[in-house]
């Protein structure tokens, strides 16, 4: 009994010791785990702080890089803007300089302004009339008095005259007739160079007569026939017959002073018949209607020449536009329009003549599209001034003839309708009733 008790006590003591041992072990493990957790938490906090610090450093570095990029881009844009500003200023200055030079050139070409412009036109007209008098008093008598020269001239005349009447707007026909006439002129030019005389000028004068006669008759009735005639003239000049431009211009002025345009003054020694001849009337009894039709035909022919775009003539591979004199170049479209729109204190400016609205209509119809294309804004200003101030504002001098000359009123209405339709067109760039046939047919 006693031994049993001792064994129980020993067992109890063992179990107590064992319990204490495991309690110590558990406490040690718990302490170690707590320490490990503390260390892990501390490490995690350190790593988190390091991450945040790294992120902050990277953010600041990115901000610094972006700020630098923004600065560089801003400086680049500022430099580009400054360069563009300087470029625009330079272009504006160049354009202004070019405009000033063009204006000075225009003033020089026009002979000034106001009365000076008319004086320049009169001077040019007088020069052409001097040339036609030279042909009449020197060239024609020389040929008439020499049987051999007269024979040469009349042979050439028979070859040229029918050719002009055969002309159509076919490229093939224009080419054929140009080459045929050029052959006659080449032979005459060579004969004149080798043996002297004025055969070449005589034939040019006859050709000019034929061209103008065709304008008075055919073009007056059908305005588009002016274009093939004009093409023949330009091609002949480009083929080397430059003097044709001078002889033709002299004859045009004799027949129709409106090609300059100028209203010739009547001198004290001129009677009515003589003055009517200066003005281009065929005879003392020619009707106003017939006169007006002829003037329209002649000016249509002249304007058609001015608006013809030079192309290489038949048999030529190159185009030498320098051969074309000023008075048959497209630049004269601008000179003519300025002269035709400029009033004069003399009261015999073209703007004051009853024929003015009719001739202006012909200009708009035959050469208006090309003039607008070449001179753009400046020609639009001319047309606008003519419409708003001249016609609608009733400042045009020709309007004073409207009450006693019904044809003036009709011509004014025609011109006004043309310009109103143009003014209402997109970009003011279309002449709705422009004469057709500018381009050659196949």
From TrEMBL:
GO terms for biological process: poly(A)+ mRNA export from nucleus; protein transport. Gene3D superfamilies: GLE1-like. It comes from the Eukaryota. One of its GO terms (molecular function) is translation initiation factor binding. Residues 48-106 have a biased composition (Basic and acidic residues). Belongs to the GLE1 family. InterPro entries: GLE1 (IPR012476), GLE1-like_sf (IPR038506). It is a peripheral membrane protein. The keyword Flavoprotein does not apply. GO terms for cellular component: cytoplasm; nuclear membrane; nuclear pore cytoplasmic filaments. This is mRNA export factor GLE1. It is found in: Nucleus membrane; Nucleus, Nuclear pore complex. Residues 48-112 are annotated as: Disordered. Coiled coil: none annotated. Keywords: Coiled coil, Membrane, mRNA transport, Nuclear pore complex, Nucleus, Protein transport, Translocation, Transport.
